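Researcher: Go.
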Amino acid sequence: MSKYRTRAAALVAQMTLEEKVSQTLYNAPAIERLGIPAYNWWNEALHGVARAGTATLFPQTIGIAAAFDEELVGRMAETIATEARAKYNAQKKAGDRDIYKGLTFWSPNVNIFRDPRWGRGQETYGEDPYLTSRMGVRFIEGLQGDDPDYLKAAACAKHFAVHSGPEGLRHSFDAVVSRQDLYETYLPAFKACVQEAKVEAVMGAYNRTNGEPCCGSKTLLQAILRKEWGFEGHVVSDCWAILDFHENHKVTKTPLESAAMAMNNGCDLNCGCMFPNLRDAVRGGYVDEARLDEAVTNLMECRMKLGLFEEEGKVSFDAIGYDQVDTKENRALNLEISRKSLVLLKNEGHLLPLDKTKIRSIGVIGPNADSRKALVGNYEGTASRYVTVLEGIEDYVGEDVRVYYSEGCHLYRDRTSNLAQADDRMSEVRAVCEVSDVVVVVLGLDSGIEGEQGDAGNEFASGDKKDLKFPGLQPEVLRVAYESGKPVILVSMTGSAMALSWEAEHIPAIIQAWYPGSQGGRAVAELIFGAYSPEGKLPVTFPYTTEELPEFTDYAMKGRTYRYMENDALYPFGYGLSYTSFAQKETALDTRTIEEGGTVTVTATVQNAGAMAGGQTLQVYVKALRENTPNAQLKGLQKVYLQPGEEKTVRIALPETAFGLYNEEGECMLEAGDYAVYAGMQQPDERSAVLTGQRPVCLTVYCSRTRKL
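Model: Structure:
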């Protein structure tokens, strides 16, 4: 879009110093003499247009990742972009240029969910760089659109880089990381977003990385982002992160020094209040005005790509009316994604699905059973209708089955009514269990105790979790249900992995529902009663205990995530059960050698060998067969949908980079030797084999010559 670059530079050349500085703030004022309207850059669209009224409220991102379906993420993002344009057009018509009303969306969050205690992990696509890359790229492509002249909306990959808690330390913390871990784990998703998806913006993180504050890091913003990757968009600071340079990181002494450091090292836009100091920084010689010109040109170019300076009607997206918000089709897509996000972790004795013709009563118990907040996660919009799990079950069974309900307990306090004694709902729990044929216990967290510092209001740990247990009296409620002797189904509504050791040992059926969106209760009810077969896979590892985790503040990947962990998982990454069964046949490779610049294509036929239609994800993992290398890593995936008896052939091409590993200098090397290629419906670990009774097919390929990729 070089024509926009030339036009933007010409516009910036007409601005005074003060006018240019004003445009580097997220709430940029109008410059009436140049025909530039006011614009607020801050908007959010993590899982739907957020914080600006009614919009389709999709499942939280971690649940979207559990679908293991790139195409689905793209469809969701396209829908978000359409609603974004519809809302923008209506707001513009009304002269509303407030925060959350623009077309620059600070999504997606492609940080790696390296530690399950991190409250913001729910915003990510999980713990794996490859899965995160694929989901992030498709989200960006869907949001930005494929119009040859204009962006439908502008996406932003955040938070660059090496950012994943603890939330309480984020404004002062130095994330120390080796170049090997940096390039192998923390950077791949950002690189894919920049080079494949052509993301318009990148947001810096609050923390320092190896001593440099991320929003003023010469290493990250200049050496890697601009020079190494060729990024051409704009960089925005996280909100008030530049203030941290002098107040918390102590790398500068004054606001002027902080603003100069950020601008000089490549930050173009300030979410915060530091960049007004740029006027004096330029006049005092701390910032070259040519660098300020470059920053403002980057910003004006983005607005031009969005068509914000064009005459009304010239941009095709101007015709998108408000009737495109919250449509019947969008609600149907929302429900479809909710269904595909749910993960069936356990189904002992085929307790699920329930046959509603064979039960007379069902108990629904727990603090998240009738909670709207537990449906949505953080960075959310407003839905026109919410369906909780209780409501979903009531709607599904109608008058055929009696539904009994008890809140059971507060989400984390020891009583639900302030004047009551502790355990004030436990007698009701016992009563509900006694009169119910089967009991659904809905436990978990919500964004009030799991999320972002300052946003979650978490009285425990600034949005992070102190451990991986259900808080408050929730474990006691579940034990009372178990001790009733009735069949118990646990629905866990969290944005992260929980330590479910007791639950896995005692409860026959467990559903991981995440924060499943405004239609989530309907999707959960339909799953329980078998309206469809579950197909979600875990995008994160569920460990047995909190105690086995490395220190939260340790950013080394040793012992973290399925790629480097040495212990068995309780429920592994890539795992999820179905109501039907799948067979894999005729798995083969088109070559047994990794040629320079070539690919290795995996072919497998997947058959639905069960009695129910269902979806299955073929997963391909690669393991270097030499010492001191990571565990098998996900390098390919494809979703297939099959009717009973139907089969499809899946082909997944692995480029030579799928076999490369980074050395201590951060160089990607393809070493000579053997590599295992695993193709199956799970990762090739022992625990997954125990849980499913299946193993992926293992084939080997050979590289004859060591080379740098």
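Model: Residues 70-93 form the longest helix (24 residues).
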